[in-house]
């Protein structure tokens, strides 16, 4: 009886492994024609020394664009104002700059994540006002706001990342 159970178990495991190999090969074949493209707009600071790209996309029937966290840095030197509203405004402008590299706009953003240092209700009010200015009459994306004690660089008060989609 043990031999039959062992043989049956071995057969089932073999079938499972075989089916998994088929699924993995299919995924490789399907994604083999797709490409990942990274973009770093020349009008934003060079992120490569910090081990990230401003955005990447994956092309197929449509294009997903994954945009790294955009801070409120105002120029190529990534100057940061001490004013929270100014940083919020620039983080959204920087997001629009990256979207434009792909021929996209805020209307194409599906999801954003906002990281705010020492979040409070006043900062939420400012964020909401600046989002309304930037998004205008477009539908707002899904959103997650995460309060944090600190971000990657000293004096960064906000960081916004996004996922956008464009139909070919």
In short:
The protein is 38% helix and 27% strand.
Number of helices: 3
* Secondary-structure element series: HEEEHEHEE
Number of domains: 2
The assigned CATH architecture of the largest domain is 2-Layer Sandwich
CATH class of the largest domain: Alpha Beta
Low-confidence stretches: 5-31
The counted number of beta strands is 6
Question: What oligomeric state is this?
Answer: single chain
Q: How big is the Rg?
A: 22 Å
Family: Belongs to the RutC family.
Protein name: RidA family protein
Pfam families: Ribonuc_L-PSP
InterPro entries: RutC-like_sf, YjgF/YER057c/UK114
Write structural notes for this entry.
It is a single chain. With 168 residues, the protein is an alpha+beta fold. The chain has two domains: 1-33; 35-167, 60s Ribosomal Protein L30, Chain: A (2-Layer Sandwich), CATH 3.30.1330.40. Helices cover 38% and strands 27% of the residues. It contains three helices and six strands. The protein has helices at 2-31, 84-101, 121-135, and strands spanning 35-39, 55-59, 62-71, 109-117, 142-148, 158-167. A six-stranded mixed β-sheet has the order 1-2-3-6-4-5. The N and C termini lie far apart (59 Å). The model is unreliable at 5-31 (pLDDT under 50). It comes from Chryseobacterium herbae.
């Amino acid at each position: 009886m043990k031999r039959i159970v062992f043989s049956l178990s071995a057969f089932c495991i073999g079938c499972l492994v075989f089916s998994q190999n088929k699924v993995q090969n299919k995924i490789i074949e399907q994604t083999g024609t797709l490409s990942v493209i990274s973009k770093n707009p020349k009008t934003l600071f060079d992120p490569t020394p910090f081990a990230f790209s401003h955005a990447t996309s994956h092309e197929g029937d449509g294009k997903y664009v994954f945009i790294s966290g955009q801070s409120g840095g105002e120029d190529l030197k990534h100057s940061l104002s001490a004013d929270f509203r100014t940083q919020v405004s620039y983080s959204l402008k920087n997001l629009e700059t990256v979207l434009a590299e792909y021929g996209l706009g805020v209307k194409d953003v599906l999801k954003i994540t906002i990281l705010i240092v020492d979040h409070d209700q006043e900062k939420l009010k400012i964020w909401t006002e600046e989002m309304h200015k930037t998004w205008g009459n477009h539908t707002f994306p899904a959103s997650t706001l995460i309060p944090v004690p600190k971000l990657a660089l000293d004096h960064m008060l906000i960081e916004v990342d996004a996922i956008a989609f464009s139909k070919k």
